[in-house]
Amino acid sequence: MLLLALDTATPAVTVALHDGDDVVASSSQVDARRHGELLLPAIDRVLAEAGLKVDALTGIVVGTGPGPYTGLRVGLMTADAFGLALGVPVHGLCTLDGLAYAADLEGPFVVATDARRKEVYWARYADSRTRLTDPAVDRPADIAGRVAGLPAVGAGALLYPDTFPRAHEPEYVSAAALARLAAERLAAGAELSAPRPLYLRRPDAQVPKNYKVVTPK
């Protein structure tokens, strides 16, 4: 097994390689505006660090969000392109699940990432491997009663201490955590989800009202 894991659903552009035993190389850079510019060089870098070529890959793991439309699309399209070019399977994992796995908490807790517009993408977990609720997007004040008293991880939790007073790192997902979680589930015979994006709201870009289509005569 040689899995390439990547995620661009948060400001972190993160890539890792897992050889079936553990992560052998990883890279993470935080820049919310340069996902497309940073991702492919990061893939080249982790392959070079591991002394491997791209045709050695046996599978791709990609974070499916939730996340902003543009950033999330960069990772998913890149994963699909590699999968098609190499003829290897592409697996999807919820980005929040990767954060929960990295947090390694035993009791109930919350994962919350920054959804912008003064909202968070969030879900509740029973432990680092078990999600209790579907991912959702809400204003922190609107979910305060549902997360009261629970530890929380993620940039969204750190941004809103009034709602998440017990927030701590990790702030962003790491591809290393996604790779380890995927390898663990695959080794157990579990089927991972398809690489489909978790878009929980419409993109910021919208077609203007009263838009007129102009076609040549």
UniProtKB/TrEMBL annotation:
InterPro entries: ATPase_NBD, Gcp-like_dom, T6A_TsaB. Residues 32-145 form the Gcp-like domain. It comes from the Bacteria. GO terms for cellular component: cytosol. Transmembrane segments: none annotated. GO terms for biological process: tRNA threonylcarbamoyladenosine modification. NCBIfam families: T6A_YeaZ (TIGR03725). This is tRNA threonylcarbamoyl adenosine modification protein YeaZ. The lineage of its organism: Bacteria, Bacillati, Actinomycetota, Actinomycetes, Kitasatosporales.
